[in-house]
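Sanity check

After download, print the first record. It should look like this:
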Amino acid sequence: MGSSKASLAWHGSTLVRRVAGIVARGVGGPVVLVRSPGQSLPSLPAAFEVLEDIEEDKGPLGGLSVGLEALAGRCEAVYVSSTDVPFLHPAFVRRVVDELGAGVDACVPCVRGFRQPLAAAYRAGLAPTVKSLLSSDRLRVALLLEACSWKELDEAALLADPGLARFDPGLESVTNLNDPQEYETATARLQPLVQLQWRRADGPPGGGSPARATLRAATLGGAAEAIGLDLGSGFEIALNGDLVSPDPEEPLAEGDVVCFAGAATLP
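Expected C-alpha coordinates:
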Protein backbone atom coordinates (compact mmCIF):
# COMPACT_ATOMS: atom_id res chain seq x y z
CA MET A 1 0.00 0.00 0.00
CA GLY A 2 2.96 2.31 0.55
CA SER A 3 1.83 3.24 4.07
CA SER A 4 0.26 1.57 7.08
CA LYS A 5 -3.12 0.13 6.12
CA ALA A 6 -4.31 0.38 9.71
CA SER A 7 -4.13 4.18 9.69
CA LEU A 8 -5.79 4.74 6.33
CA ALA A 9 -8.82 7.06 6.54
CA TRP A 10 -12.26 5.52 6.14
CA HIS A 11 -15.25 7.89 6.08
CA GLY A 12 -14.53 9.71 9.34
CA SER A 13 -12.63 6.83 10.92
CA THR A 14 -9.70 4.54 10.07
CA LEU A 15 -9.49 1.04 8.66
CA VAL A 16 -8.26 -0.47 11.93
CA ARG A 17 -10.94 1.29 14.00
CA ARG A 18 -13.67 0.16 11.61
CA VAL A 19 -12.61 -3.46 11.33
CA ALA A 20 -11.92 -3.86 15.06
CA GLY A 21 -15.33 -2.33 15.84
CA ILE A 22 -17.15 -4.61 13.41
CA VAL A 23 -15.39 -7.68 14.83
CA ALA A 24 -16.32 -6.54 18.34
CA ARG A 25 -19.98 -6.40 17.33
CA GLY A 26 -19.78 -9.89 15.87
CA VAL A 27 -18.03 -11.74 18.69
CA GLY A 28 -19.33 -10.16 21.89
CA GLY A 29 -16.03 -10.76 23.69
CA PRO A 30 -12.54 -9.28 24.09
CA VAL A 31 -10.87 -7.81 21.00
CA VAL A 32 -7.10 -8.04 20.63
CA LEU A 33 -5.11 -6.14 18.00
CA VAL A 34 -1.60 -7.35 17.19
CA ARG A 35 0.73 -4.77 15.67
CA SER A 36 4.29 -4.91 14.42
CA PRO A 37 6.92 -3.92 17.01
CA GLY A 38 6.80 -0.15 17.38
CA GLN A 39 3.98 0.29 14.85
CA SER A 40 1.97 3.47 15.40
CA LEU A 41 -1.80 3.08 15.50
CA PRO A 42 -4.55 5.71 15.44
CA SER A 43 -6.66 6.41 18.50
CA LEU A 44 -8.67 3.37 19.61
CA PRO A 45 -11.21 2.70 22.39
CA ALA A 46 -9.65 1.59 25.67
CA ALA A 47 -11.62 -1.67 25.49
CA PHE A 48 -9.41 -2.87 22.61
CA GLU A 49 -6.21 -4.59 23.75
CA VAL A 50 -3.17 -3.69 21.66
CA LEU A 51 -0.27 -6.16 21.72
CA GLU A 52 3.02 -6.27 19.86
CA ASP A 53 4.13 -9.09 17.62
CA ILE A 54 7.03 -10.90 19.31
CA GLU A 55 9.09 -11.30 16.17
CA GLU A 56 9.13 -9.53 12.84
CA ASP A 57 8.98 -11.31 9.48
CA LYS A 58 6.85 -14.17 10.79
CA GLY A 59 3.83 -13.18 8.72
CA PRO A 60 0.20 -13.64 9.79
CA LEU A 61 1.05 -16.76 11.79
CA GLY A 62 3.21 -14.68 14.13
CA GLY A 63 0.37 -12.29 14.88
CA LEU A 64 -2.05 -15.18 15.23
CA SER A 65 0.24 -16.76 17.82
CA VAL A 66 0.29 -13.61 19.96
CA GLY A 67 -3.47 -13.15 19.71
CA LEU A 68 -4.38 -16.75 20.52
CA GLU A 69 -2.02 -16.84 23.48
CA ALA A 70 -3.53 -13.63 24.87
CA LEU A 71 -7.05 -15.04 24.59
CA ALA A 72 -6.32 -18.56 25.86
CA GLY A 73 -8.48 -19.30 28.90
CA ARG A 74 -10.70 -16.27 28.22
CA CYS A 75 -12.73 -17.65 25.34
CA GLU A 76 -13.06 -20.79 23.26
CA ALA A 77 -13.58 -19.43 19.74
CA VAL A 78 -11.61 -16.61 18.13
CA TYR A 79 -12.45 -14.75 14.93
CA VAL A 80 -9.30 -13.67 13.07
CA SER A 81 -9.33 -10.73 10.66
CA SER A 82 -6.86 -8.69 8.67
CA THR A 83 -7.15 -4.91 9.00
CA ASP A 84 -7.95 -4.15 5.34
CA VAL A 85 -11.53 -5.46 5.00
CA PRO A 86 -13.74 -2.35 5.35
CA PHE A 87 -16.86 -4.12 4.05
CA LEU A 88 -16.81 -6.74 6.81
CA HIS A 89 -20.29 -7.23 8.28
CA PRO A 90 -21.02 -8.40 11.86
CA ALA A 91 -23.35 -11.06 10.43
CA PHE A 92 -20.39 -12.60 8.56
CA VAL A 93 -18.33 -12.76 11.76
CA ARG A 94 -21.17 -14.39 13.68
CA ARG A 95 -21.85 -16.89 10.91
CA VAL A 96 -18.25 -18.08 10.76
CA VAL A 97 -17.86 -18.35 14.54
CA ASP A 98 -21.18 -20.16 14.94
CA GLU A 99 -20.01 -22.88 12.54
CA LEU A 100 -17.06 -23.78 14.76
CA GLY A 101 -18.80 -26.83 16.18
CA ALA A 102 -17.72 -29.72 18.36
CA GLY A 103 -14.65 -31.54 17.13
CA VAL A 104 -13.63 -28.69 14.82
CA ASP A 105 -10.55 -26.54 15.51
CA ALA A 106 -10.96 -24.06 12.66
CA CYS A 107 -13.70 -22.87 10.34
CA VAL A 108 -12.42 -21.29 7.11
CA PRO A 109 -14.68 -19.64 4.52
CA CYS A 110 -14.08 -20.29 0.84
CA VAL A 111 -15.30 -17.35 -1.24
CA ARG A 112 -14.82 -16.77 -4.99
CA GLY A 113 -12.75 -19.92 -5.18
CA PHE A 114 -10.25 -18.87 -2.49
CA ARG A 115 -9.92 -19.98 1.12
CA GLN A 116 -9.95 -17.09 3.58
CA PRO A 117 -7.73 -18.08 6.55
CA LEU A 118 -7.61 -14.43 7.69
CA ALA A 119 -11.41 -14.22 7.82
CA ALA A 120 -11.84 -17.39 9.83
CA ALA A 121 -12.58 -18.80 13.27
CA TYR A 122 -10.07 -20.76 15.34
CA ARG A 123 -10.02 -22.46 18.71
CA ALA A 124 -8.04 -20.41 21.23
CA GLY A 125 -6.52 -23.74 22.32
CA LEU A 126 -4.54 -23.84 19.06
CA ALA A 127 -1.96 -21.44 20.54
CA PRO A 128 0.62 -24.21 21.31
CA THR A 129 0.23 -25.65 17.81
CA VAL A 130 0.86 -22.25 16.22
CA LYS A 131 3.88 -21.65 18.44
CA SER A 132 5.31 -25.04 17.46
CA LEU A 133 4.97 -24.17 13.76
CA LEU A 134 6.73 -20.85 14.31
CA SER A 135 9.60 -22.47 16.19
CA SER A 136 10.28 -24.71 13.19
CA ASP A 137 9.95 -21.78 10.76
CA ARG A 138 6.84 -23.27 9.14
CA LEU A 139 5.09 -19.96 8.56
CA ARG A 140 2.23 -20.67 6.16
CA VAL A 141 -1.25 -20.56 7.67
CA ALA A 142 -2.12 -23.56 5.48
CA LEU A 143 0.26 -25.63 7.63
CA LEU A 144 -1.84 -24.81 10.67
CA LEU A 145 -4.88 -26.28 8.95
CA GLU A 146 -2.92 -29.43 8.16
CA ALA A 147 -2.11 -29.74 11.87
CA CYS A 148 -5.69 -29.51 13.12
CA SER A 149 -9.27 -30.55 12.39
CA TRP A 150 -10.86 -27.88 10.23
CA LYS A 151 -14.01 -27.20 8.26
CA GLU A 152 -14.51 -25.29 5.02
CA LEU A 153 -17.52 -23.00 4.77
CA ASP A 154 -18.52 -22.39 1.15
CA GLU A 155 -20.60 -19.52 -0.20
CA ALA A 156 -23.87 -21.44 -0.08
CA ALA A 157 -23.29 -22.37 3.55
CA LEU A 158 -22.42 -18.80 4.45
CA LEU A 159 -25.49 -17.38 2.74
CA ALA A 160 -27.77 -19.91 4.43
CA ASP A 161 -27.78 -17.33 7.21
CA PRO A 162 -30.75 -15.00 6.43
CA GLY A 163 -29.12 -11.91 7.91
CA LEU A 164 -25.92 -12.35 5.95
CA ALA A 165 -27.82 -13.13 2.76
CA ARG A 166 -29.82 -9.93 3.18
CA PHE A 167 -27.08 -7.50 4.14
CA ASP A 168 -24.00 -8.94 2.40
CA PRO A 169 -25.27 -11.12 -0.47
CA GLY A 170 -22.06 -10.61 -2.45
CA LEU A 171 -19.91 -11.61 0.54
CA GLU A 172 -17.99 -8.36 0.30
CA SER A 173 -16.91 -9.05 3.88
CA VAL A 174 -13.79 -10.76 2.51
CA THR A 175 -12.86 -8.02 0.00
CA ASN A 176 -9.45 -6.67 1.00
CA LEU A 177 -7.39 -3.72 -0.21
CA ASN A 178 -3.92 -4.41 -1.58
CA ASP A 179 -2.84 -1.21 -3.30
CA PRO A 180 -3.74 2.51 -3.56
CA GLN A 181 -6.01 1.97 -6.55
CA GLU A 182 -8.08 -0.64 -4.72
CA TYR A 183 -8.25 1.69 -1.72
CA GLU A 184 -9.46 4.63 -3.84
CA THR A 185 -12.03 2.44 -5.59
CA ALA A 186 -13.31 1.13 -2.25
CA THR A 187 -13.66 4.57 -0.68
CA ALA A 188 -15.72 5.70 -3.67
CA ARG A 189 -18.30 2.97 -3.11
CA LEU A 190 -21.61 3.69 -1.40
CA GLN A 191 -21.53 3.76 2.39
CA PRO A 192 -23.82 1.40 4.35
CA LEU A 193 -27.55 2.07 4.18
CA VAL A 194 -28.84 2.57 7.73
CA GLN A 195 -32.08 3.60 9.43
CA LEU A 196 -32.22 6.40 12.00
CA GLN A 197 -34.91 7.13 14.56
CA TRP A 198 -34.91 10.05 16.98
CA ARG A 199 -37.22 11.64 19.53
CA ARG A 200 -36.92 15.02 21.21
CA ALA A 201 -36.89 15.25 25.01
CA ASP A 202 -39.22 18.26 24.79
CA GLY A 203 -41.63 16.55 22.40
CA PRO A 204 -45.41 16.22 22.88
CA PRO A 205 -46.90 14.41 25.90
CA GLY A 206 -46.72 10.66 25.45
CA GLY A 207 -43.72 11.00 23.20
CA GLY A 208 -45.49 11.07 19.86
CA SER A 209 -44.09 9.30 16.82
CA PRO A 210 -40.32 9.36 16.40
CA ALA A 211 -38.80 11.00 13.36
CA ARG A 212 -37.23 8.55 10.91
CA ALA A 213 -34.72 8.65 8.10
CA THR A 214 -32.93 6.16 5.87
CA LEU A 215 -29.51 7.31 4.73
CA ARG A 216 -25.95 6.20 4.07
CA ALA A 217 -23.32 6.47 6.80
CA ALA A 218 -20.25 4.44 7.77
CA THR A 219 -20.02 5.73 11.34
CA LEU A 220 -22.23 6.90 14.17
CA GLY A 221 -20.73 10.37 13.78
CA GLY A 222 -21.59 10.42 10.09
CA ALA A 223 -25.18 9.40 10.81
CA ALA A 224 -25.58 12.06 13.51
CA GLU A 225 -24.11 14.75 11.29
CA ALA A 226 -26.54 13.86 8.51
CA ILE A 227 -29.50 14.84 10.71
CA GLY A 228 -27.77 17.81 12.37
CA LEU A 229 -27.19 16.10 15.71
CA ASP A 230 -24.36 16.86 18.15
CA LEU A 231 -23.22 13.57 19.71
CA GLY A 232 -22.08 15.49 22.79
CA SER A 233 -25.61 16.60 23.63
CA GLY A 234 -26.08 13.91 26.27
CA PHE A 235 -28.70 11.35 25.26
CA GLU A 236 -29.08 7.62 24.86
CA ILE A 237 -28.06 5.88 21.65
CA ALA A 238 -29.19 2.37 20.75
CA LEU A 239 -27.62 0.41 17.90
CA ASN A 240 -29.93 -2.42 16.84
CA GLY A 241 -31.48 -2.24 20.31
CA ASP A 242 -28.22 -2.26 22.29
CA LEU A 243 -27.03 0.88 24.10
CA VAL A 244 -23.72 2.23 22.80
CA SER A 245 -21.46 5.12 23.76
CA PRO A 246 -21.54 8.33 21.67
CA ASP A 247 -18.29 7.46 19.87
CA PRO A 248 -18.34 9.21 16.47
CA GLU A 249 -16.09 6.47 15.02
CA GLU A 250 -18.39 3.61 16.03
CA PRO A 251 -18.77 1.71 12.73
CA LEU A 252 -22.13 1.19 11.11
CA ALA A 253 -22.97 -1.70 8.79
CA GLU A 254 -25.61 -2.28 6.13
CA GLY A 255 -29.06 -2.63 7.69
CA ASP A 256 -28.23 -1.07 11.06
CA VAL A 257 -30.93 0.75 13.01
CA VAL A 258 -29.76 3.65 15.18
CA CYS A 259 -32.08 5.25 17.76
CA PHE A 260 -31.36 8.59 19.46
CA ALA A 261 -33.53 9.37 22.49
CA GLY A 262 -33.88 12.23 24.95
CA ALA A 263 -31.98 15.02 23.22
CA ALA A 264 -33.61 18.45 23.40
CA THR A 265 -31.35 19.69 20.61
CA LEU A 266 -32.59 17.18 18.05
CA PRO A 267 -34.10 18.80 14.94
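If your output differs, re-run the checksum step. Summary of this record's structure: The first helix runs from residue 15 to 27.
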